[in-house]
Amino acid sequence: MTALDFANSIVKGLRSAGFEAYFAGGCVRDMILGRPPQDYDISTNALPVDIQKIFPRTVIVGEAFNVILIISEHKEKPFTIEVATFRKDVGIKDGRHPERVEMATAREDVERRDFTINGMLYDPVDDKILDWVGGQEDLKKKIIRAISDPELRLREDHLRMLRAIRFASRFSYQIEESLWKGIQKNVSWIQNISAERIFDEFTKMLTEGHAAQAYESLADSGLLGIIMPEALKMKGVPQPPEYHPEGDVWVHTMLLLKQLTTAHSKEVAWGCLLHDIGKPSTFEHHPPDRIRFNRHAQIGREMSGLILKRLKAPTHLREVVCELVDQHLRFADVKKMKPSTLKRFLRNPNFPLHLEQHRIDCLASHANLELYDFCQQALAEMPEESLRPKPLINGDDLIAMGLQPGPKFKKILEAVETEQLEGRLSSEKQALEFVREHF
Q: Rounded CA gap, 265 and 353, in Å?
């Protein structure tokens, strides 16, 4: 059974019990476009209590909005389908939630949604699309249009400003003029939305395959200046043409984003966006034509940490992105590194992310992949035991030598490993002699 099969069985089960039930939202849009839906949502006039009588495995997730999850009986990887009762929202409370919700018809349920392309229903039993808002026509015209009054839709949920830009970028569509003007007019509303929701939308923009288009639109709308003003400062900052013939820091960054695909990780995507965020504040021009960005990687790390913390990004992602920003210039020295330094860099758990960001960085400037190829070859040719050799000695050996345990042990063992990675030590005896001689 597939997720589609399970979703079909839910609709049929609800219909057999005398209720209306349809596929709703993004899955209908994607099916019309011939894209595999990421998930299937169902709308119905059945209440959660009715649904629980028909399907044994359910979890109520949005009691105030009558939303319930139905879980398949697959033991290894069960499917989960969200089922929501038709509703209409009454009043606007906080730019995200209505004052209250009421039971509604299928058409009323659709008319409260955000954009026409997300406002269609599909009846899998009769193989029929229900489209009261012109979604099919807007898919043909490649337009993101609000359902009914654009400003009202944005007022109901301010995050729709970001969603409009994300959908337009994802599908390479145009935002309808009155919706675009509504976004530009009301950008300040985005300050009422939680940082977590904004971070989620920004991340989706970076990882859905059209990141540059999304971030250009964020800049043009005025939203980027409110959410991440540090990024806008990259515009107009010149770079040394011998290293960056493509143009200023913003142009370079957008060229990186153009290369991001749906296969890239969130960490690499954010790393590409923020890798040169420190350049505007470190820019120095030395006449006649010398340009310098001293310590921009380190400053960029600090700025990236502050930006991601402000957006309440997950701690692990923040740490990895900061590392990618901090070390993105290390590749310039890989051919000159001591063997021990190179090996430690290559065996870094995040090295594949560093390497991919470096590849993208190169292609967005001089297009020279010599250092990328060098690292690829080094990884391919270097035996695992050379990259991660078994330690020659440990803390117990140091204690047996009469040394007192303490922070110095770490320094000693690292020094021994350095000699081992350099190829100057290869046995326990040699390692112990090295310690006696140097410590």
A: 8
- The answer as to CATH 2.60.40 being correct for domain 200-378 is no
The pLDDT value given to residue 170: 96
Q: Where are the domains of the chain?
A: 1-144, 200-378, 389-438
CB 118 within 8 A of CB 25: yes
For residue 10, give Cα distances in angstroms to 57, 289, 439: 12, 68, 72
Rg (CA), the chain: 28
Residue-wise pLDDT for 256-299, tens only, equals 999 999 999 999 999 999 999 999 999 999 988 899 999 999 99
User: 91 pLDDT band (50/70/90 cuts)?
Assistant: confident
Q: What is the mean pLDDT of the chain?
A: 95
Peptide bond preceding 405: is omega within 30 degrees of 0, i.e. cis?
no
SS3 string of the chain?
CCHHHHHHHHHHHHHHCCCCEEEECHHHHHHHHCCCCCCCEEEECCCHHHHHHHCCCEEEEEHHHCEEEEECCCCCCCCEEEEEECEEEECCCCCCCCCEEEECCHHHHHHCCCEHHHCCEEECCCCEEECCCCHHHHHHHCEECECCCHHHHHHHCCCHHHHHHHHHHHHCCEECHHHHHHHHHCHHHHHHCCHHHHHHHHHHHHHCCCHHHHHHHHHHHCHHHHHCHHHHCCCCCCCCCCCCCCCCHHHHHHHHHHCCCCCCCHHHHHHHHHCCCCHHHHEEEECCCEEEECCHHHHHHHHHHHHHHHCCCCHHHHHHHHHHHHCCCHHHHCCCCCHHHHHHHHCCCCHHHHHHHHHHHHHCCCCCCHHHHHHHHHHHHCCHHHHCCCCCCCHHHHHHCCCCCCCHHHHHHHHHHHHHHCCCCCCHHHHHHHHHHHC
% residues pLDDT > 90 (the chain): 91
CATH 3.40.718.10 fits domain 1-144: no
Angle of CA points 395, 397, 401, to nearest 5°: 115
Largest CA distance in the chain: 87
Determine the Cα–Cα distance for residues 126 and 137; give it in Å rounded to an integer.
Answer: 21
Is a pLDDT exceeding 90 seen at residue 1?
Answer: no
* Residue found under tokens 């997300």: 118
Read off φ and ψ for residue 367, nearest 5 degrees.
65, 15
* pLDDT mean over 26-50: 96
Taking the C-alpha atoms of residue 111 and residue 87, their distance in angstroms, rounded to an integer, is: 10
Is the pLDDT assigned to residue 73 strictly greater than 90?
Answer: no
